[in-house]
Amino acid sequence: MGLGEWQAIRTIFHFADRAWASLDPLANRIVQVSGEAWRWLGWLGRDPASRRLERYPVATRAPLPWSTAGDRDG
């Protein structure tokens, strides 16, 4: 497999106050979050009324998988 053929199987994003989110880009899902990471995550979709592209909070889609190492309060 050449270098150009690699795919990310897990991506981890770090945010303020030691919050983080682990994403699986192949499955298009959030694996786990900690702290205040939920504030930074969202999804894009069309507003049904205006047809404009809008950003929605990720928590509007489904409950988030919280880390067992900490809770929502960090």
Model description:
By secondary structure, the protein is an all-beta fold. It has one domain (3-60). Helices cover 0% and strands 34% of the residues. It has strands at 11-14, 20-24, 29-34, 42-46, 53-57. The strands form two sheets. Strands 1-2-3 form a three-stranded antiparallel β-sheet, with no helix packed on it. It has a two-stranded antiparallel sheet with strand order 4-5. Strand 1 (11-14) and strand 2 (20-24) form a beta hairpin. Mean pLDDT is 83; it is low at 70-74.
Low-confidence segments, given as residue ranges, are 70-74
Radius of gyration: 15 Å
Summarize the helix and strand pattern as letters. Answer: EEEEE
Number of strands: 5
Bin the helical content. under 10%
Residues in β-strands, percent: 25-35%
| Global structural class | mainly beta
| Largest beta sheet: strand ordering | 1-2-3
Topology record:
Layout lengths: L10 E4 L5 E5 L4 E6 L7 E5 L6 E5 L17
Antiparallel strand pairs: 1-2, 2-3, 4-5
Task: Considering the chains and any ligands shown, give keywords for the structure.
74 residues, mainly beta, three-stranded antiparallel beta sheet, two-stranded antiparallel sheet, 5 strands, globular, disordered C terminus
In short, what is this structure?
With 74 residues, the chain is an all-beta fold.
